[in-house]
Predict the structure.
Amino acid sequence: MKEILSQDNKKIKYCISLSKKKYRDRDKKFILEGSKQIMEALSSGLKVDFILVRDDVYDLRTIDGDSVFIKLQEKEQVIRVKSDVFNSISQTENGQGIIAVAEQPKWEPEDLYAKNRLDDNYLVLDRVQDPGNVGTLIRTAEGAGYKAVIILKGTADIFSPKIVRATGGSIMRLPVYAVDGYDMLQDIVKKLGKRLVVTDLSGDRWYYEENISGGIALVLGNEGNGVSEAVRNMADLKIKLPMAGGLESLNVAVAGGIFMYEAVRNKEI
């Protein structure tokens, strides 16, 4: 197995560059950290360029059993890295000591329409900016059986390391589509034949007063400002959560989970 001893190594520098969005966008690559994420990428059929293993990690049994991983070893794409060099690129404390560079999942827009069913639900994120919230919402959307996530401009980059970790692997299984403008969102929702349900503090109805099952596009907005005015104006329905005490709102990931599962309460997922 090859070994990297210096931070001047090209692969180390490349990993550092992928901490920035512009390089992830340019090369359509992203960083995976930990054997679970890497195995998920391999089983999803994503191309893994190389895997870096910290030099004090000797037990690779968690991934050694995978034939694809073995092939990567045979092609010398699994490389040991000196601990202090590895730690300079790792973004997790007390991690497993395994990092990979992989291609980003690519979802074709045509699939969004071709696989759409009448009672399918979709999640729309409107300028949600906290990486932990975005990752948690994508993970929850998969758990609640949503068919895809639509990301509006201004939402945090879904391939940032923190979001990738927070999705728990959902980012490699659940289709996520980036949409540039509100007109495009409106067109997509219309083609899918979905009601656009907006979550809003000044919503018309409490969430439990409305039947939001049967196929919706559920919109969750920015942590501080909520859903944009343009999306509010498109809404078929605006719903809200009741708040006791002095609270104005819940964390968007918590509220999103409540709304998402309410929409599938009477549906087998």
